[in-house]
């Protein structure tokens, strides 16, 4: 697994942009058409672009974590021992419970560990998380999601979760 995901951006080829990832707003359509006609001059020439766009895995993980937390009935994220130590020392790790892998064709596989609300329907939570994460990653980065793996680590009532979260904060304050 690498620490960064590098996406090549070809400035002269507007057709290479994924329509779902880069929708053009109505007021910008005239500008896009003008740029495409300017780029038509370069159709026969191959241009080597020096431009690139690179995402840190932490950025991808943060987008995933925020989108996951927005899903109904997801109470929290479940991290590893390192995340626990960081939280005990007072640091909030927004990427806790998330890891990403980049495939050879620059698609992303997302692994998420969550705590869900007792009494909720896990398959519906999975579909909600999958939709939110895919939508946000595509909208913000243009990356294609190759797969999402959701692992339910714990089930709690909202009251239990709030009490455990409060105890963890008090322990960190000591």
How many beta-strand elements? Answer: 6
**Overall geometric form:** globular
Mean pLDDT over the residues: 75
- Structural class, from helix and strand content? alpha+beta
Determine the number of helices (DSSP H or I, runs of at least 4 residues).
Answer: 5
CATH fold-type name of the largest domain = Alpha-Beta Plaits
Strand content: 15-25%
The succession of helices and strands, N to C, reads EHEHEHEEHEH
CATH architecture of the largest domain: 2-Layer Sandwich
Report low-confidence residues grouped into runs of 5 or more. Answer: 8-45, 80-91
Distance between the termini: 36 Å
What level of helicity do the residues show? 25-40%
Any idea of the CATH class of the largest domain?
Alpha Beta
Radius of gyration: 20 Å
Number of domains: 2
Largest sheet: 4 strands, mixed
Descriptive overview:
- With 174 residues, this protein is of the alpha+beta class.
- The protein folds into two domains: 4-52, no CATH class; 57-173, Alpha-Beta Plaits.
- The protein contains five helices and six strands.
- It has helices at residues 29-39, 57-69, 81-88, 122-141, 158-173; strands at residues 4-8, 52-56, 74-77, 98-102, 108-117, 145-156.
- The strands form two sheets. Strands 3, 4, 5 and 6 form a four-stranded mixed β-sheet that branches. A two-stranded antiparallel sheet has the order 1-2.
- A hairpin with a 5-residue loop joins strand 4 and strand 5.
- Helix 2 crosses helix 4.
- The longest helix has 20 residues, at 122-141.
- The chain is globular.
- Residues 8-45 and 80-91 have low confidence and may be disordered.
